[in-house]
Structures are given as C-alpha cells and as structure tokens.
Amino acid sequence: MFTILIISVLTFAIAFLVMALSSLLAKKTIMDREKNSPYECGFDPKGSARLPFSLRFFLIAVIFLIFDVEITLLLPIASTFNLTNIFSWFFTSLTFMFILLLGLYYEWFQGALEWT
C-alpha cells in the first residue's frame, strides 16, 4: 500500500513538473490578437453571426464527412476477405464501390453546376 502511495505521489510530482516547465518555456512575449482569438472555421468570432455562410466551405466539409464515412465502411470489407466466399465478397465490394462512385460523381457535378 505504501509503494502505491509513493508511486502516485511521484507520478503527480513529475506531471506537475513537466506542466510547469512547459508553461514557463512556451510563453511568448508578443501577444497577438489573432493568435489569442479562437479559430472558428475562417470566421471572425467577434463579428456578427448573421453574415452569409461560405458555400464552398460547406461543400468541402460535406465531402470530408462523406469520405470519412466511406473509410469507416470500407475497412470492414477488407477484414472480411478471409471469412467469406470470394465471389460474394467481390460482388458486395464492387457494388458498394459503384454506389460510392455514383455519389462522388453526383456531388462533383452538383458542385460544378453550382459554380457556373
């Protein structure tokens, strides 16, 4: 029980020492307004909230989310290769990839039509 107490005290002491050193060494003398303000996706956080939203930023965010979801859906396909029939695995993977490509082309053409 005593050794657990000593290890806990040493852990907290080392963590406190590292945090104190990092805060002392990382202080910058020049305080800039831009560096001290939070980053809000390119918007000025102190400005009006009723400004029009950038459609280009919205499309990039949506495409990022789509690809993020696609990756989470594609990874299990690779791991089930050894567990299933090769024809069934290939057909399912091909169908899924075809649906994803159709969605990608749809998004791309919608964006291209919107910018013209």
Automatic annotation (TrEMBL):
InterPro entries: NADH_UbQ/plastoQ_OxRdtase_su3 (IPR000440), NDAH_ubi_oxred_su3_sf (IPR038430). It is found in: Membrane; Mitochondrion membrane. Pfam families: Oxidored_q4 (PF00507). Belongs to the complex I subunit 3 family. It comes from the Eukaryota. It comes from Gelasimus borealis. This is NADH-ubiquinone oxidoreductase chain 3. The chain crosses the membrane at residues 53-75, 87-106. GO terms for molecular function: NADH dehydrogenase (ubiquinone) activity.
